[in-house]
Design a protein that fits this description.
By secondary structure, the protein is an alpha+beta fold. The strands form two sheets. It has a four-stranded antiparallel β-sheet. A three-stranded antiparallel β-sheet has the order 5-7-6. Helix 1 packs across helix 3.
Length: about 130
């Protein structure tokens, strides 16, 4: 269990064959994430990125072995926003600077940051686990 401000999250990966992971917080419903959501959350740790940058970060960090296609990325981001883990804003670029398209930038919320911290703690605990 980790405390980050007033947010307290426990990471409980699902062991029932489901690909969703669960994050528990007292007085807040279980937060379930799938592997794509977890990749997006990790890519947004300590930074603000727009959609294409998120896909590039994941692909480059994995040396091309993991990818999220644009068709999956935006539904994933929308789900993370609905869960309160990610927030977004429209960029300040002028239409002529972006050939008419505006970028939407994404960052972690405080709950998203606490969830990422819980993911790291679980992975660290698992890596350092020793049988008794």
């Amino acid at each position: 269990m980790h405390e980050m401000g007033t947010v307290n999250i426990n990471y409980h990966p699902d062991s029932g064959g489901n690909t969703a992971n669960e994050f528990y917080q007292e007085n807040i419903p279980k937060i379930k994430t799938n592997s794509n959501e977890e990749l997006v959350l990790l890519s947004l740790e300590n930074r603000e990125l727009y959609g294409l940058q998120i896909t590039q970060a994941i692909e480059e960090a994995s040396q091309g072995t993991r990818k999220i296609r644009i068709g999956s990325l935006y539904p994933t981001l929308h789900n993370l926003e609905k869960k309160g883990l990610v927030q977004s804003r429209w960029g300040d670029e002028k239409p002529e600077e972006r050939a008419g398209a505006r970028r939407r930038y994404y960052t972690l919320t405080s709950l998203g940051k606490a969830t990422v911290t819980a993911i790291h703690e679980f992975r660290n605990n698992l890596l350092n686990w020793q049988p008794t």
